[in-house]
Amino acid sequence: MSTPDFTAQRTALADVVAIPVTPFGEDGRIDAPAHRVLLRRLLDAGVRTLTPNGNTGEFYALDPQERRAVVELTAEATEGEAVLIVGVGHEVPTAIDAARHAQDSGAQMVMIHQPVHPYVSADGWVDYHHAIAESVPELGVVPYIRAARLPGGRLTELGEACPNVIGVKYAVPDPVTFAAFARDAGLDRFVWVAGLAESYAPSYFSAGASGFTSGLVNVAPALSLSMIEALRAGDHPAAMKVWEQIRRFEELRAEDGSAYNVTVVKEALASLGLCRRDVRPPSSPLPSAVRAEVAAIAGEWSL
């Protein structure tokens, strides 16, 4: 069997990879109308790569039926206007079921969340991703790497066994470690996505990344798109001007071990009247003083 052509998927990864929020209504359930509004806002701004069921979408706080609903709602709302990279994870059978559902729903790729398990060996990491990737050979597959322990050669091994593993969302907060890992694994074999968003994008691009993920894009898509344009053009000063604009917002998201990562984004959207601020445990609402600061930032961006 010939290997599918993943050119379009690789191109989509070399871009702003938006991680949409999952808005909740007053009843605590997914607010489908608000979700459609937020997705349309991203599309109208020019965002063309979306990851439903990413961490900014509160993947681990959604039940299986809700995760399926998010995928179906996103596919319906985008109607082919965007490339979808569906987040999948948990134990292998659940991840495989989610990957196949993503394929049936029209997604072009899946992003495999880092295994949440107290004991992860390098062999087990390869086996886990191999099982999921081989279950959907026609989909592009993107491992999400958040731990520095994995040697780059093990990703090479996975890529050799599974040609559909085409990109990597790398989220270790160390550009030197990233540069070494990417070269050990295969700089040109995979599309490297800076998985720590705009804050790390300039340094990761200098080391070989060609795309970055973003939760901030939900709030200010023009800023995220301006940064990718500057980075593609090699205009580092322009990229850093955007970095300066988004710095405080991203610092608030990163405080206390990223405890308010999603909360800050939803607070900004709430201040703009786009959805409720509600998040699910183990996330929590922002202190009132921080709410005011987030609203002020979002208000300046919306001018």
Proportion of residues in extended strands: 5-15%
User: Mind describing the biggest β-sheet?
Assistant: 8 strands, parallel
Mean pLDDT equals: 97
Query: What structural category arises from helix and sheet content?
Result: alpha/beta
Uncertain stretches: none
Strand order of the largest sheet: 1-8-7-6-5-4-3-2
Cα-atom Rg, whole angstroms? Answer: 18 Å
Shape: globular
End-to-end Cα distance: 53 Å
> Share of helix among residues?
40-55%
Number of strands: 8
Give an overview of the whole structure:
The protein has 303 residues and is of the alpha/beta class. Helix content is 51%, strand content 11%. The chain has twelve helices and eight strands. The chain has helices at 7-13, 32-45, 64-78, 92-104, 122-135, 152-161, 175-185, 197-206, 221-232, 236-258, 261-271, 288-301; strands spanning 16-18, 49-50, 83-88, 109-112, 140-145, 167-170, 191-194, 211-214. Strands 1-8-7-6-5-4-3-2 form an eight-stranded parallel beta sheet, sandwiched between helices. β3, α4 and β4 form a beta-alpha-beta unit. α5 runs parallel beside α6, α6 runs parallel beside α7 (175-185) and α11 (261-271) crosses α12. It starts with 6 loop residues before the first helix and ends with a helix. The mean pLDDT is 97.
